[in-house]
Specification:
Helix content: 25-40%
Radius of gyration: 20 Å
Oligomer: single chain
Structural class: alpha/beta
Strand order of the largest sheet: 1-3-6-7-2-8-10-9
Number of domains: 1
Largest sheet: 8 strands, mixed
Number of helices: 8
């Protein structure tokens, strides 16, 4: 593992790994935000890092310079890191991984990640993701899930969030990692949160909380998520203020609210992949606004 830097000896009793990638599958930074919360509030211990040198184009994801307390420059490179958590009763713990989606050598990157996982005894993987979707910020975020583990799939079905995989098209590093994991005999579950597509670029703590609600429920973690309440309230207030400044956007959000509420009252249908097509959603919003503004000018 030439690309892996271990900071301590790895444990071998971590049957479950939770993975979170920033970038393409991290709408509203909900995925990386959820993982930061897990690492911090589980007081997880840093285990290892993947050297970014061969996997990232630093002109696309640039290192960040920070000043230390004594005024020295500190360069922080794109990070792909592992943490471990052991419960107080010394029973089986968790391996946690967070990293940006790499630009190259995906198969090598996936192999390194899974080699560390196998070394730690991982048998099942929980993958977190978030996509843009046509839903309003004024309603609870939706989360869907799929799994190759029969027990986990039964839970998803019982919770009413199971979605049969049917997507075909460009994909991200999380899919490549899970495919490689399946070839090693590892089972996995994928949670996918949905973030309003008209709020691109805005960090969305509501989706982070929604993802964590299911992760803690699935893994039996006793974590207090109430700290998100203030952040979610502030986020919604900012969104309300932004929407109120544009009558066309306000009308569009009201339309999404009607669609959302109607879907709640009806028998749920499986979520279609076109419902999560970000390019189609953006075009939908642009067409709506063009029509509203064009009509208002007549």
């Amino acid at each position: 593992m030439d690309y892996i830097e271990f900071h301590r000896e790895s444990p071998s009793n971590l049957p479950t790994m939770v993975v979170a990638f920033g970038g393409w599958i991290d709408a509203g930074e909900a995925v990386t935000g959820a993982m930061r919360y897990l690492v911090r509030h589980l007081s997880a211990s840093h285990l290892a890092s993947i050297d970014p040198e061969e996997f990232f184009d630093f002109t696309k994801v640039r290192p960040v310079v920070r000043l230390t307390a004594d005024g020295q420059r500190d360069i922080r490179w794109p990070r792909s890191a592992f943490w471990t958590w052991q419960p107080p009763d010394s029973s089986a713990g968790l391996l946690l991984f967070r990293g940006m989606e790499p630009h190259r050598m995906w198969r090598t990157y996936a192999k390194l990640l899974l080699d560390v996982a196998e070394q730690c005894g991982v048998q099942r993987i929980v993958s977190l993701g978030a996509l843009l979707a046509a839903l309003p910020h004024t309603r609870p975020p939706r989360v869907t899930g799929s799994s190759t583990d029969p027990t986990w799939q039964a839970l998803l079905e019982a919770w009413g969030i199971y979605r049969r995989p049917s997507y075909e098209g460009p994909t991200g590093i999380a899919t490549a990692v899970l495919d490689a994991a399946a070839r090693r005999g590892m089972r996995y579950l994928s949670f996918m949160g949905q973030s309003p597509h008209y709020l691109q670029g805005a960090a969305n703590p509501a989706v982070s909380r929604a993802l964590l609600t299911y992760v803690t429920r699935l893994l039996g973690l006793e974590l207090d998520l109430s700290q998100f309440d203030t952040a979610v309230q502030a986020f919604c207030t900012r969104c309300d203020q932004a929407v109120a400044n544009d009558a066309s956007i306000q009308a569009y959000v009201q339309q999404l609210e009607q669609d959302y509420d109607a879907a709640v009252d009806e028998t749920p249908r499986p979520l279609r992949d076109e419902d999560l097509n970000s390019e189609r959603l953006i075009q939908e919003l642009e067409d709506f606004l063009r029509g509203e503004r064009g009509g208002g000018a007549e």
